[in-house]
Amino acid sequence: MFQLPQGSEAEGTSEENPILLPGCSNAEFESLMMLLTTSTTLTPLELSKEEWIAILKLATMWDILNKLEKFKLGRMYKVESWFTDGCGLLIDDFQDTSLEDIAAALGWETAAKIASAAWKQSLPKDGIILVPSNCWLCRECHGGLQQAYNASNQIYCVGCGRYTSLEPGVKVEIALLDFSKLADSELIYASRRGASPEALEAVKAAFGEELKEMY
Fold first, then answer.
1. What residues contact residue 160 under an 8 Å CB cut-off, 6+ apart?
2. Pair 80, 74: CB distance under 8 Å
3. CB 149 within 8 Å of CB 130
4. Considering the entire predicted model, what is its pTM?
5. What domain of life does the native source organism fall in (predicted)?
C-alpha cells in the first residue's frame, strides 16, 4: 500500500484490490477491531482465547498500545509483559504523564505506587549525582565551561577565559548549574521503546504480589 507508485487503482479502493496487511489474517483484524470499537464501560468484553491471542499478536506487532493502556490491559487480563512494560515506562517517563491522568486511568492507590517507585528511582544509588559538563557555569562570570583543547585535566570558561584544574583532589568551584541544557545530554534517552532495566526492577518491588498471578 505504501510503496509508490500505486497506479490508477490503489489498494483499498475496491473489493478486487483490498489493502493487504502482511502477517495479519481477516479474523485477527476483526478481533482487534472488536476490542477497539466496543465500549467496556458497563460490561466487560467477552472474547474467546483465540481472539485474545490474535489481539495480543497484532497489538505487539504494530506497537499500538500506549503505556497506560498496556498497564491497564495487562492488569485486567493478567498479561505480565504488558503490565511490566507499561508500568516501567510510566516510572521512566513519570514527568510526561500527570499524576491525575494516571489516577483517572488506574486509581489513586496505583498512581501512588508508581509515583513512589519513580521518586525512588530518581535518587542516586551511591549518593553521587552525575551532571554533564554542558550544565556547568563559571563562578566568576557565569559563562559556559568546556574542556581545554590543550589539557585534558582543565576546563576553560568561554566568557572570562579562566581555567580550572580537574586534577584529583582539587575542588572545581562552580557557581551554579544550568539544568535547562540537561535535556540535550546523552544521559537522557527520549526515544526508548521499552522500559529500562531499573524501572522493571522497580515494578517487581512495587507490584510483586500482583505479578505472581500473571502469565
1. 138, 140, 141, 143
2. yes
3. no
4. 0.53
5. Eukaryota
From first to last of the 215 residues of the chain, give the pLDDT tens digit.
455 555 566 777 777 788 888 889 999 999 989 888 876 656 777 888 899 889 888 888 887 888 998 898 889 888 898 899 999 999 988 888 889 999 988 999 999 999 999 988 877 666 556 666 666 777 777 777 666 555 555 676 777 777 665 544 444 444 444 444 444 433 333 334 578 888 899 999 999 999 999 98
Q: At 54, is the secondary structure helix, strand, or coil?
A: helix
Q: Name the nearest CA neighbour of 112 among 82, 90, 85, 84.
A: 90
**Can you name the residues that pair with 205 across neighbouring β-strands?**
none
Q: Which three cell numbers stand for residue 7?
A: 497506479
Place of cell 499524576: 99
Q: Is 180 left (phi over 0), alpha (psi -120 to 50) or beta?
A: alpha
Cα 82 to Cα 46, 65, 108, 135, 150, distances in angstroms: 19, 9, 20, 37, 51
Residues contacting residue 83 through CB under 8 Å, at least 6 positions apart: 70, 71, 74, 75, 203, 207, 210, 211, 214
Q: How many CA atoms lie within 13 A of 184 on its CB side?
A: 7
